[in-house]
Amino acid sequence: MLEVHIQKKLTHFTLDVQFVVRDEIVVLFGPSGSGKTTVLNSVAGLVHPDSGRIQLHDMVFFATGQKPMPTRKRKVGYLFQDYALFPHMSVKENIGYGMQSNDMSDVQAILDVLGIQHLLTAYPHEISGGEKQRVALARALATKPDVLLLDEPLSALDEATRLRCQDELLELHRMWKIPILLVTHDTAEAAKLSDRILSIDRGVLTPL
Ligand code: ADP
Ligand code: MG
Known about the structure:
Layout: E1 2-9, E2 14-21, E3 25-29, H1 36-44, E4 51-56, E5 59-63, E6 76-79, H2 91-96, H3 108-114, H4 129-142, E7 147-151, H5 159-175, E8 180-184, H6 187-193, E9 196-201, E10 204-206
The chain binds adenosine-5'-diphosphate (ADP) and magnesium ion.
């Protein structure tokens, strides 16, 4: 279980949220600028709260007054809002980045579900937006994370591709029950993917 309690003063308001994510998909839903990315960055350790506590199972990522656990020790898979791939690396090298070994057989199930096996030798400029998105998701999953953070992972895709990727994400989650925190501002997507929806506005959770 991921336990999140964050207080952080931002430019225009104070982020103050408290919630848990069990082995489920929790959607963080809210307007642009409401603090969603800051929540994900805090869980990943890219920024730190002013106070609060972030804990995954028995691992304390952050606690007021303690030295935060470094990002590399947190076992967090993070798909950024602009899921940039490394342009000079092949798909295989992109996915292998951050993995212990470069043996793709470890991630075969992920490649199969996402249908990107045939793209391994291609470079990012040679593949479509939807394929890039799948590769970025495979890269986030390849490190076998204990928690997955997805920041508007599907927003750049056309409707048909987005629907297919939503199904793939649900399939991956069925195979691999870990806490997933997913940001979207698409209501249909939130309803389809979420076990629970947290609505956020100006840094606080609000009733839907
Ligand atoms: P969202 O992802 O919901 O669009 P963000 O978390 O990116 O929102 O940003 C929320 C607000 O906090 C924005 O107004 C942004 O300018 C501000 N902000 C983001 N990071 C910091 C920071 N490290 N310090 C102060 N303010 C920040
Ligand atoms: Mg954001």
